[in-house]
Amino acid sequence: MPYRLFTRPRILLALLGAALLGGCGFNNTQVPMAATYPYSEQRKMQAAHHWEVLAAYEAERIMRSARLEGQPLFVSQASQDSPFARGFGSMLVTHLVANGALVRTDPIGAAQVDYQVQVVEHDDRDFIRPPRGALTTIATGIAVATWPINHWSEPALALVPAAAGVDAFSGGWAGVTDKEVIITTQVIDVNRVLYSSSNVYYINPEDEAHYRDESTFLKTIPITNRW
After folding, report:
1. The pTM is what?
2. Do 189 and 124 form a contact (C-beta atoms < 8 A)?
3. Which of 43, 138, 187, 194 registers the highest number of CB atoms within 10 A of its CB?
4. pLDDT, tens digit, for every residue of 26-37?
5. pLDDT tens digits along 150-164
6. What whole-number distance in Å separates Cα of residue 38 and Cα of residue 25?
């Protein structure tokens, strides 16, 4: 017993010394170390309804702007020709009118509402953390599932608690993709920017064409040897 009491403090001191040495070595690195941002969330656009949600949000904010109070508005056609640009412009007019805005069909004497879309594609992303609570949910589901294996007569019933645990959280999850869009809405009067709002969203890779300018796509001409 005396020997054990003597060796335990020595082990603790050795571990503490190793930790201190490791900490000193870490603090003396020659280059800045990469640090992650705090946990945050970013919405994902997956339907035309999401375009309408953004249009309603922008229309409400424009109407609440003190700089634009009583200002006639003209929603210009987007410089980009894309399904999103056409749909978002129409939705924006609809929600501005619904909020009581004076929307004109010509730009004379009106502030111009512009919007543009930028598609961002990441070639290579480092490790991405799982959604908050994902590991806890999975671990809880597995732990709970072991109980009915030993207490219920039908082993297949063990999947029920696990599925219920995952379903409780999975409705708020969306897959992270390598493609995003930056959507900027502005109200400009002559040479003054009276309102500006930018929003960033994830998009599905297959939906990229909805946000790309169709006028910039190369036109393909079929070539044949038949006359």
Report:
1. 0.67
2. no
3. 187
4. 556 678 888 878
5. 555 555 555 555 555
6. 25
